[in-house]
Amino acid sequence: MIVNTLVHSLLDLALPPGCVCCGTPTERDAAGLAVCPACREGLAAAAATPFCRRCGRTVGPYGSCGHCSRHSPPFQAAVRAGPYDSPLGAMIRALKYRDGLHTLPLLADLVSARLHQANLLAEIDLVTFVPLHWRRCWRRGFNQASLLARAVRRRGGATAQVVRLLSRTRDTPPQVGLSATARRENVRGAFRVRRPEQVKGRRILLMDDVMTTGATVGECARVLRRAGAAQVAVAVAAVAESGPMAVASGAAVG
Predict the structure, then answer these.
(1) Per-residue pLDDT tens digits for 18-58
(2) Domain boundaries, the chain
(3) What does R_g of the chain's alpha carbons equal in angstroms?
(4) Whether the Cβ atoms of residue 214 and residue 187 lie closer than 8 Å to each other
(5) How far apart are CA 69 and CA 102, in angstroms?
(6) Counting CB atoms within 10 angstroms of each CB, which of 22, 62, 87, 192 has the fewest?
(7) Are the C-beta atoms of residues 121 and 165 closer than 8 Å to each other?
(8) What string of DSSP letters covers 53-105?
(9) Where is pLDDT greater, at 90 or 32?
(10) What is the rounded distance in angstroms from the CA atom of residue 112 to the CA atom of residue 236?
């Protein structure tokens, strides 16, 4: 162990690690994570952005959410580490598209902190995640939502087990560029509960990497509630507000 630590320290001196958010050479912190000062500031600002505790969308300084007043979501609570238009977005893109598994610990810690603030980890029976269709999972090699759920459970100290409760019945087209209505239609009927007896009467935490309009997590929550779940809460790493910015960033997943 001491030898490994010494070797890593010498390697860092010779070749400083890149920031997990932007790639800039920087030093590791006490936890072994490399985050440059600028991105630390960006993550702190992202965490300070107020959001609706019901749907996860960014709200004004008074915390009122116009969307929830018009459309009540099918889940009971939502937390996020911050907005996608922040260093979080770069970390998620690295995780999904550039073999950036090194971003998982920090993403998990940020989501776990939000869950502890909302006291949600103590109020759930099971943790699950939005499933990928098997073809997409095979092409990517992993389901980032599953990896995030397991990392949050492990690093956040949750006692609830991570269980694959849902499966995807069809390979839906990408949500990027679709309107909110088209997104809902795109995922309607795309999920099913694998074993309803695991769901009935349970309080479930549903995890995904990014939420835009909430269509995907909303459909998953409806399916879980129809199968008898007592309640469903949602946790995501980031929320990409719908609009040109979300579409241009490639973040618009659901």
Answers:
(1) 888 888 999 888 777 888 999 999 999 999 999 999 999 98
(2) 49-249
(3) 18
(4) no
(5) 39
(6) 62
(7) no
(8) TTT--B--TT---HHHHHS--SSSEEEESSBSTTHHHHHHHHHHHS--GGGHH
(9) 90
(10) 10
Cα separations (Å) of 187 from 4, 191, 221? 47, 8, 12
Q: Which residues are within 8 A (CB) of 246 and not within 5 positions of it... i.e. 6 or more apart? A: 84, 212, 240, 252
- Tokens, residue 61: 């300084």
Consecutive H or E run containing 129: strand 126-129
Residue 25: both structure tokens together: 């050479």
Residue type, 106: L
pLDDT digit string, tens, across residues 188-247: 777 999 999 999 999 999 999 999 888 899 999 999 999 999 999 999 999 998 543 343
Q: Which two tokens stand for residue 174?
A: 């990408």
Instruction: Please choose, from the candidates 195, 207, 200, the residue with its C-alpha nearest in 3D space to the C-alpha of residue 230.
Output: 200
pTM: 0.85
Q: Which residues of 141-159 are buried (b: 16+ CB within 10 A; e: fewer)?
A: eebbbbbbbbbbbebbebe
DSSP letter for each residue of 155-212: HHT--SEE---EEESS-PPP-TT--HHHHHHHHTT-EEES-GGGTTT-EEEEEEEEES
- Considering the four listed CATH numbers 3.40.50, 3.40.91, 1.10.4100, 3.30.420, the one that applies to the domain covering 49-249 is 3.40.50
Matching residue, tokens 């990408």: 174
- The single residue listed with the structure tokens 């949602």 is 234
Sign of the four-CA dihedral 201, 158, 83, 91: negative
Could you tell me if 127 and 161 are in contact, meaning their C-beta atoms sit under 8 angstroms apart? yes
CA dist 24 and 218 (Å) reads 37
